[in-house]
Design goal:
With about 725 residues, the protein is of the alpha+beta class. It contains 24 helices and 22 strands.
Length: about 725
């Protein structure tokens, strides 16, 4: 909390200093060798040397108490938890700066009792390790290791390298004491998975997704981008596997782990227990601080393009609006499903022709689809190369003939609904068109013709669909090499992307807020002018009112009794009030048009005034979006493998996959194999389909990550 008295107001934003960690828009943490400093509004406020815990804690506490930053911002920048920061604040308020030093007690990295070390050494000895190896693993002298094991060899050893995760020290999969000690000593980079045989292990069916996850290359990409997350029992590989399996098990938020037994999920990971809420959040924060989520998503997309290139001929793109219900001032966006304009963040997803996601981009200020398409197509071109022909499929939000011309000139084709006024066609001009696309037979009533836009400078193809003999839906495209039925199918299959958004919202908590941190937007950044929006809204309302009055005026004219008002002049006199209303509305429309013309389309954030416009921190959300994307892709890949063996795969296949992933299974380790035997499903034909899928996955010869165990799948009779 702030001390009595108000601090001096400082500018909200400053230019970022090189080699710094941003705390918020006005505070940065600079690291220069062993020197550390906090800058506020470009001026040095606190400085210390690395390792001076007292001075560092004082800087953190002061930033919060003086109101320069909130707890989440400071904790994120300094790499600690908010709980630690609150504890330091309480100690400072009680005992001053001297109380911020290290508390009395054991030094960091030591164990509570010597008998634990002796027990660890004896366990290693029982595994056949020599005293020298034991000394190297525990980071002690050989004499000490010999004393703990009742041996008398004396050779010093002080090897501080990380233990290879593939050579863990624990023989008991349910008691990983030694590896946890090694991790605490900074000598273990990641715990080796050790599986114990067992029956009806809860949620062990999720291991069915491991081959698909390995094919995606997510762990290899994570290692390439992030490297490691430091010496830890739960290293990078374990953390990523835990997050992926949680998503597939519909554990939508880390807080839900409180309702799960850590040992149950741990057995699926090959550990004595899974990471719990605090640990998992700390790992996510560590990854987010690296600032590499976009690079992570880009590398994943590159792998997907290399493996699934044939599905990229048609790409669907649309924006998904995540509504924000907090107290910060965020830009508003129109939420179609709610029919309201609310504070929100807009993510633009690109999906392949099967509806599977390829990558996602967050709009800076909820820009519309027309503004985002050049950004998305530039990203796509970098992914697929300069020669690949790509057709962008989108809805009316991207309608802009000028943009179409730009996209076509840059090597893209377009396919979208026609927007604006267009002439209805006689039903006699429609013909029945049939085609077989993606194994499906389709039939439409279509009219195919050429149109010109931009005063004849842009030639496109218009395909109009007739439904129920009266409803007409025109689409426009630059593709002339495909039949009208094929193009109609691709356009009307846009529902796949809408279903994808709905599925991720319901099953994977796509809209969940993963990070409460926010940062002010740059003052020079432009946003849509609210005055112009208000003028356009008022203009639309005035035009609607004018149309209503004209309708009433016309009805009165149609029912006019000529024996009473035989002339138009008499009719106008009799309906003078209505005429005055028409003229008043027309004058108001003219004035609103003038106001709209005078208001610029966009203004800078600085011109808006009021409370600073904020944006939510995007790094952690983008990372979790990428993880959910990989999980969805894994489900889709399993569905593709299931489809030849299940007649109703299109309707029920994903439900079958989800049920199998959440089902119990028997685990058995034998002859270098991890055998996963899934429990039976609800019917015999579903069991047969699942058995065929298991056979296919077994033939892939996938090893569980971090082990040499080949995965073998089957179903219980």
């Amino acid at each position: 909390m702030k001390p009595p008295g108000s601090h001096l107001e400082l500018p909200l934003t400053i230019p970022a200093i090189s080699d710094t960690v941003p705390i918020n828009g006005r505070c940065t943490l600079k690291k220069d060798g062993v020197l550390r400093a906090v800058y506020i509004a470009g001026l040095p406020a606190y400085h210390w040397t690395d390792g001076d815990r007292m001075a560092e804690a004082h800087a953190m506490v002061s930033l919060v108490r003086c109101g320069y930053a909130d707890q989440n911002e400071v904790a994120g920048a300094f790499g600690c938890s908010t709980r630690t920061l609150r504890r330091s604040t309480r100690r400072f308020e009680a005992g001053g700066m001297s109380s911020l030093g290290r508390e009395a007690g054991r030094p960091r990295g030591t164990c509570y009792a010597a008998n634990v070390w002796a027990s660890t050494a004896k366990s290693l000895k029982a595994q056949g390790l020599s005293v020298r190896d034991i000394a190297q693993k525990l980071g002690v002298s050989k004499s000490t290791a010999g004393r703990w094991t009742s041996k008398e060899e004396v050779v010093a050893a002080d090897d501080r390298e990380l233990v290879d995760a593939a050579h863990g020290c624990d023989p008991d999969p349910d008691a990983r004491v030694i590896d946890r000690i090694l991790a605490r000593m900074g000598k273990l980079g990641d715990a080796k998975p050790i599986f114990a045989s067992g029956r009806r292990i809860t949620h062990a069916g999720v291991l069915l997704a491991v081959p698909a996850l390995m094919q995606s290359g997510v762990l290899a990409v994570a290692e390439e981008v992030y490297g490691h997350i430091g010496p830890a029992f739960y290293g990078l590989r374990t953390t990523m596997m835990a997050l992926l399996l949680m998503v597939l098990l519909r554990i939508k938020r880390p807080e839900e782990l409180k309702e799960r037994a850590p040992a149950d999920l741990g057995r699926v990971l090959g550990l004595d227990r899974a990471p719990e809420v605090k640990t998992l959040r700390r790992k996510l924060s560590r990854l987010a601080l690296a600032g590499k989520a976009e690079a992570f998503g880009r590398k994943l997309a590159q792998r997907r393009v290399a493996d699934r290139g044939r599905a990229l001929g048609f790409l669907y793109t649309d924006g998904h609006v995540r509504v924000y219900h907090g107290k910060r001032r965020l830009p508003k966006a129109y939420v179609t499903r709610m029919r309201l304009a609310l504070p929100a963040t807009t993510d633009y997803w690109v999906n392949d022709k099967h509806g599977d996601p390829l990558f996602v981009v967050t709009a800076e200020l909820n820009e519309g689809l027309a503004q985002m398409l050049p950004i998305l197509t530039a990203e796509i071109r970098e992914l697929v190369g300069p020669r690949r022909r790509i057709t962008m499929v989108f809805d009316r939000g991207g309608w802009s003939p000028k943009l179409f011309k730009r996209l076509i000139n840059s090597g893209f084709d377009i396919l979208t609904y026609r927007k604006g006024r267009w002439k209805q066609l006689p039903s006699t001009q429609f013909v029945t068109c049939a085609a077989k696309v993606d194994g499906r037979s389709v039939r439409y009533e279509l009219n195919d013709r050429n149109i010109r836009l931009l005063n004849g400078r842009l030639r496109l193809r218009q395909i109009t669909r007739l439904r129920e003999g009266k409803y007409q839906t025109p689409i426009v495209t630059s593709r002339r090499d495909l039949s009208a039925a094929v193009l109609a199918y691709r356009m009307f299959e846009r529902w796949r992307q809408e279903n994808f958004f709905k599925y991720l919202r319901m099953e994977f908590a796509l809209d969940a807020l993963t990070d409460y941190a926010a940062e002010p937007m740059a003052l020079e950044q432009t946003v849509p002018n609210p005055e112009r929006r208000n003028a356009e809204r008022a203009l639309a309302e005035a035009r609607a009112e004018l149309r209503e009055i004209h309708t009433l005026y016309g009805e009165a004219a149609a029912t006019n009794e000529e024996d009473q008002r035989p002339t138009m002049r008499g009719f106008k006199i009799a309906h003078g009030d209505m005429g005055k209303r028409i003229r008043a509305v027309e004058e108001r429309i003219a004035l609103l048009k003038q106001q709209r013309g005078q208001a610029p389309a966009r203004v800078s954030v600085a011109e808006l005034g009021g409370e600073p416009l904020m944006r939510l921190s995007r790094e952690r959300k983008h990372l979790t979006n990428c993880i959910k994307m990989v999980a969805y892709q894994a489900e889709s890949d399993l569905l593709a493998l299931l489809r030849p063996h299940y007649a109703r795969a299109d309707d029920e296949g994903r439900t079958l996959i989800t049920t199998a992933l959440q089902s119990p299974a028997d685990l058995e380790v034998r002859d270098g194999e991890l055998c996963v035997t899934l429990a039976p499903l609800s019917s015999a034909h579903r069991d047969r389909a699942l058995a065929s899928l298991c056979d296919t996955l077994t033939k892939m010869n996938v090893r569980f990550p971090g082990t040499d165990l080949r995965m073998r799948f089957g179903t219980a009779s």
